[in-house]
Write a structure and sequence with these properties.
Shape: elongated
Low-confidence stretches: 1-6, 8-17, 19-25
Order of helices and strands: HEEEEEEEEEEEEEEEEEEEE
Structural class: mainly beta
Radius of gyration: 30 Å
Mean pLDDT: 87
Length: about 250
């Protein structure tokens, strides 16, 4: 290029540009973060509490959104916990200082008029921070839900068809599966729920406690056609369990 051929005003502008011809705007990298103290504590009936802390010294980590995830097996694919299926539940967010804590549910729930599974039994869990413009992404340590499966076996009632106001006997066996091995009797409380024909609401009619062999018995009078189902609400070491209802016909 022949600089002598350029207008004087162009030469003046070129004179103000640094020798590098272009200057990249320096952008500070997001500050590193860690998630520490991640815990998952089981509660009855099927609830659990997650807690921990998002850390980034010298940075503001208040009101940061976190993602709760689970995997069916160690090293398996991670899925986001769908907290929006639970009425009134919000996603994890940090408070002042980066702490977070919330309680959720692991099992079957009703969402959009359908029964849906939320979470995963015997799963592995973690909390992940996706990062933003000021602080970088990070992931917590992995913990496993310590609860084991439980189930009501041999559920039945007799008679299956009665006259109005007659008594019905309900029986079954509550079992659990320690170490995911063989099913064994478990001592606990079972709720016998019923929904009358034409109604939408379930009510409990009896709540028998099992004996040392896991067996329970309940007997009461029934006055309308009713669908009955046994429910175990779970506890700190066991998952909740229910099963499809069975109709009792009342003449």
């Amino acid at each position: 290029m022949n600089l002598r051929s350029l207008p004087a005003i162009t030469l003046a502008v070129l004179a103000t540009v640094p020798a590098t011809a272009a200057v990249a705007h320096a952008t500070a990298a997001p500050a590193p973060t860690t998630i520490t103290g991640f815990r998952m504590v089981s509660q009855a009936p099927g609830n659990f509490v997650v807690s921990g802390r998002l850390n980034s010294p010298g940075m503001v980590v208040k009101d940061k959104a976190l993602i709760l995830e689970f995997a069916a097996k160690s090293g398996g694919k991670w899925y986001q916990y769908q907290h929006w299926m639970l009425k009134g539940k919000k996603g994890l967010r940090t408070t002042a200082g980066g702490a977070f804590k919330a309680d959720y549910f692991n099992g079957w729930t009703v969402y959009g008029n359908k029964v849906r599974n939320i979470g995963q039994p015997n799963a592995y869990w973690r909390v992940r921070f996706a990062g933003d413009a000021t602080v970088a992404a990070s992931t917590s340590a992995v913990v496993r839900d310590p609860r084991i499966d439980a189930h009501v076996a041999g559920w039945k009632f007799s008679p299956r068809s009665i006259r109005k106001g007659s008594s019905v006997t309900f029986t079954g066996v509550l079992v659990h599966r320690p170490g995911n091995g063989a099913w064994k009797p478990y001592r606990g409380r079972v709720y016998i729920l019923g929904r009358q024909k034409g109604a939408k609401t379930w009510y409990w009619y009896a709540r028998p406690t099992t004996n040392s062999k896991g067996r329970f018995t309940a007997r009461f009078r029934v006055y309308k056609d009713t669908m009955f189902s046994p429910v175990f609400n779970g506890d700190k070491t066991h998952y909740a369990s229910n099963q499809p209802g069975t109709w009792l016909n009342v003449r």
